Amino acid sequence: MPSTHTDKAFEADLRDLREKLLAMGAKVEAHIADSVRALTERDSTLAERVIQADKEVNRLEVEIDETCRRILALRQPAASDLRLITTALKIVTDLERIGDLAVNIAERAKDLNEAPPLKPYVDTPRLADLAQQQVKKALDAFVSSDVAKAEAVLKEDEHLDVLYLKIFNELLSYMMEDSKNIRRATALMFIAKHLERIGDHATNVAEMVVYMVRGTDIRHPRSRNLTTAP
Amino acid sequence: MPSTHTDKAFEADLRDLREKLLAMGAKVEAHIADSVRALTERDSTLAERVIQADKEVNRLEVEIDETCRRILALRQPAASDLRLITTALKIVTDLERIGDLAVNIAERAKDLNEAPPLKPYVDTPRLADLAQQQVKKALDAFVSSDVAKAEAVLKEDEHLDVLYLKIFNELLSYMMEDSKNIRRATALMFIAKHLERIGDHATNVAEMVVYMVRGTDIRHPRSRNLTTAP
């Protein structure tokens, strides 16, 4: 990316910012995987670990916000550098919300682990994998200012929507079959919905990356909701 | 709020920014109310209007982002002014997501209007009212830099969580009672969840206002999820 600020201090600031964002991203990616593993392996200790570890994600959010503000105040960046920093300020919020969603999944997993499993979990871990990859790719696209990678994330989101819809409909049929399934199926529905929303956060990040690099806003021509399920 | 920038151009910029944010806020507040009215009055034309009007919300998001970046580039604000602009950049994202949630509710309303109503809707419009008021108060707290108002929003969030839980449990019992209720009750559950999330967005805004004014981050000591429902 061409930069109007070539001094070393500014480059060091940007490197620091990118590293912190990647560190925060790595944490929330691990929390997505662990929260769903807590469900599939019925491991409530792991669920509790995800819930506790969210503090660190929150701490990183505050720290990255401060870093962005410090860079704005000291370096007064312009043009593409300014877009980079303002985009980072927004991305950090998406990462923090992804962390909250992983906590929410972990809480549901703890409840579900108290009862016998409704069914073998196959599609939910697949959806978690996809969501986690989307977060990783979107963040990689940001730190490398890579539009092609960001556009791949936007394209891939459809697969998450389709898989979510499949899970939703399957759980609905379990509920119809036997009212004893309703409570557990509802909890699983919300877990799937949380994973689909994590995918939406990745999409938001990817859209912001395209804007940051191109200077053209593509955030809104496409709809975020392709599914017909709630 | 004490300002290090006293020149008139800067004040005019800030006034412009506040006005745009309030205009965007007024729009999303109306969309929350209309999306739920589309459900309670079985008015799918109104639902469609909410869906179409979201374009304007999205346009305002892009415009406000640009305004913030222009102020940062031209005025190079420091200290509390810098916090004001960086907070506005984050708040606008919350407002846009609230708009998306209203669209999602409107889409569910359209589907639900195709079938006979499950039950008279009493608590859902109440939850919508509370959520809408929370958004309004949080945004007022921002434009007037009013910490007391922001703290009132944080305190009030508990009432939304309690009401959401009540709706959730009632819908669960409808589902248990008769499997013919399941599909509609699930859709209503997601509508209630969306309203509760709108309340969470208002809470996010309020937390940012406290930080903006006090310079102390209170975003993370309290948990966002007090409910035990998914």
Automatic annotation (TrEMBL), chains A, B:
Gene Ontology terms, cellular component aspect? cytoplasm
Keywords, A to Z?
Cytoplasm, Phosphate transport, Transport
Q: Does the keyword Transport apply?
A: yes
**Main site of residence?**
cytoplasm
Has UniProt tagged this entry with the keyword S-adenosyl-L-methionine? no
The biological process GO terms on file are: intracellular phosphate ion homeostasis; negative regulation of phosphate metabolic process; phosphate ion transport
Assembly mode: Homodimer.
Entry function: Plays a role in the regulation of phosphate uptake.
Q: What is this protein called?
A: Phosphate-specific transport system accessory protein PhoU
Native source organism of the sequence: Archangium gephyra
Species classification:
Bacteria, Pseudomonadati, Myxococcota, Myxococcia, Myxococcales
